[in-house]
Structures are given as structure tokens and as C-alpha cells.
């Protein structure tokens, strides 16, 4: 039977709390607790961004499917917004604007993914993202080397980069933009930097998607800047063997990384990290930290 609870005046039915979602025994109740614990830091990163869900309702070893449309049975108090899917079509997606909505979404058992734009201005990206994905035997250690190079190059263009783990094998770099810029221009700029990184670090970086090029290198994926793409949100659980989190990290941690386990964080680590460091991505939310997208220059 579902457990009926109240969150900030909203009634929620939380189901199957004892269900094991990860092979090590991590349950749905623990997943809900994780979202509640990180909510003060997570909610600002979700606010006003249409939510896409990678759902795994029967656990990480069960079926996975991507869901963007508002699901049947969505409470009337959940905020939704119509967003473009193509030149001719629109769709309605969830906006996680408050804690009750976050907990309702967490009850669906899913990774949380958001675009680089907000619902009110879907053609304009207010941040830039790089997904650094290592090809074995490369690891997050190599990603950190690439991240440092990109950080310096971005700084040379007046932009400030923030880092988080992907929650899988790699790193995400995020850059606030103010004013927001057209997604196609952000993608072009990000591609130019990815090409520049491959030229500067040819034995370490690849920017083309071909998997045959990736072993031992870091794929600098710039494509998630496209308006149709999404990226795992900060603090979301990932559907891996263990309940890893896409965790914000400081540049001192990136600089010091010499082993993969140094930048791998599970749900139980998040409360302590937030207590010690606060939200390491807080600057990403401050319009005063954003800078205009620079003009393209030769890689």
C-alpha cells in the first residue's frame, strides 16, 4: 500500500518504498531520502527548466526509458509548460518548482535531465556545457587534465567554468552565460573549443563521436548545447551499479585527482559534502557571474 504523506501542504502517495533499486540493496525509500536531503541545493538548478526523465522503475537492472511528456496521473498542482519539439510541434513538460514536485518526481524513480535553457526562452541558452567522457583505459583522471585545459581556455575568453562529476565515468563542465545566447551559437563556440583541445592535446582528446577514436582518450562532447539535448542535473542519482550522484566538485579536487575513486560519490556522501562545501555550483546560478558568449576565434 502507498504511504500517504504531506510535503509543504501537498499530499503525496509514495509507493513501494522497500523496493531495491540497486544491486547493493539501496531502496526506493533511500532514493527519496536522497532527494529530500539535497533539495535545497538541487531545486534552484531545476527551477524553470523543462524536465526529462530517464526512468528505471524496476531498478537499474530493469527496463530504462526516456520520458519527456507529462505522465498520466500528474497532480494538478504540478507546474507544467509547453515547449517546442520542432518547428511545427510543441509538448508539455514538468517544471520542478518546489519540494512537493521534486518528491513526486523522485517517486517515479528516474534520473533528472534538463536543457541548457529555461522554459520562457527555449531558443536561448543561459549556460554552456561540456561532457567529458573517457574511453577506457582512460578514466576521470584524464578527464581532469582536459578539464583544466578547457578551464584555462574559457578563462582566456572571460568565462568561468564549474565542474561536476557525470555520476558515471566522466566530468561535466558548466559555464554561465549572461546574456543568454542562441543555442546554435553556443554549440558552434563549444565545438571550436573542443577542436582546439584536440589540437593542443592530440594524444588525450577527441572531439568526433566515432567510438573507434575514443580508447585511451577523452571525448569532449559539445553536442549537449543543442537546444534539443539535455544533461544530467546536479545531484541527480544515476542508473549505475551503485547509487552514484552527479556531484559538484571544486577545482582543487579536480587538480588533485590521481585516482578514479577520488571523484566518485554515492548518495550517502552528499549530506556531508553539502555541509562542508555548500553548493559548489552556486555561482552558476548567479547572473552576475555570467559573461557574454565570445565571438568565435580560430581554434
Structure description:
- Residues 27-280 form the DNA ligase D polymerase domain.
- This is ATP-dependent DNA ligase.
- Keywords: Ligase.
- InterPro entries: LigD_pol_dom, MtLigD_Pol-like, NHEJ_LigD.
- The protein has six helices and 14 strands.
- By secondary structure, it is α+β, with helices and mostly antiparallel strands.
**Helix/strand class:** alpha+beta
Distance between the termini: 59 Å
Strand content bin: 15-25%
Count of helix runs: 6
Poorly predicted residue ranges: none
Helix content: 25-40%
Order of helices and strands: EEHEEEEHEEHEEHEEEEHH
Summarize the main sheet.
6 strands, antiparallel
Shape category: globular
User: Number of DSSP strands?
Assistant: 14
Gyration radius, in Å = 19 Å
Mean pLDDT: 96
Q: What descriptors fit this protein?
A:
299 residues, 6 helices, six-stranded mixed β-sheet, six-stranded antiparallel β-sheet
Give a short overview.
Residues 27-280 form the DNA ligase D polymerase domain. This is ATP-dependent DNA ligase. The protein is an alpha+beta fold.
Topology, element by element:
Blueprint: E1 3-7, E2 10-14, H1 28-46, E3 50-55, E4 65-67, E5 80-84, E6 90-95, H2 99-106, E7 110-114, E8 124-134, H3 140-156, E9 162-165, E10 171-182, H4 183-200, E11 205-206, E12 218-221, E13 231-232, E14 248-249, H5 251-256, H6 270-277
Parallel strand pairs: 11-12
Antiparallel strand pairs: 1-2, 3-4, 3-6, 3-7, 5-6, 7-13, 8-10, 8-12, 9-10, 9-14
